[in-house]
Amino acid sequence: MDAALAVFINHEYPYLSAAEYQFNEDETDAIVRTVSYHRKDFDQAVIWFSPPEHHDIRPSIATPFPRSSDVRSGFFDRLPLELFRDILFRLDIRSLFRLRQTNLRAREAVDSLKEYQIIVSHGLNLLCALLRTDLARDILLLDFYDVLCTKICSICGEFGGFVSLLSWARCCFRCITRSAPRARVCTLAGAQK
């Protein structure tokens, strides 16, 4: 091995093997199953939708219509663009969806927001869970974007792969399953004790 390759391997990618990994073709499926293991216990702890379930709605909530609107949006057209965008950022998700459905101009305005595009592209399961549980009225667009861009558990500081709908905070699986006080769900009677 030449010196340049050795430096590259040792400093840039310290875990890269200098030897080529060999495996039999019949081992391919077992390797893929192992590295892409789906934890069934996660399914019990989260709201999850299969990708085909939202395949048809993704274009309708993520893209504007191919034509633009000449119709004015009424009150919002009288506002400076910066103020209108600030209002959109401060709307809850349900109100944002309702505004987006009023006319083509409002739809274009909402669709032009980078944060909205990131939410519908990368947080569609979470978005649908909010809408279906009627919690979308409690979460602002910016709050949704912030929690989507956060990666640590708000309780223990480890990687938080989940979002608690009740506290609207990132949580790791351990904190959710071990019922950390901030992630615990109980009845009203239990909370009053």
UniProtKB/TrEMBL annotation:
- Pfam families found in the cross-reference section: F-box
Query: Start and end of every F-box domain?
Result: 73-119
PROSITE patterns from the xrefs? FBOX
Q: Which superkingdom?
A: Eukaryota
Protein name, as recorded: F-box domain-containing protein
Q: Please name the source species.
A: Fusarium irregulare
Organismal lineage: Eukaryota, Fungi, Dikarya, Ascomycota, Pezizomycotina
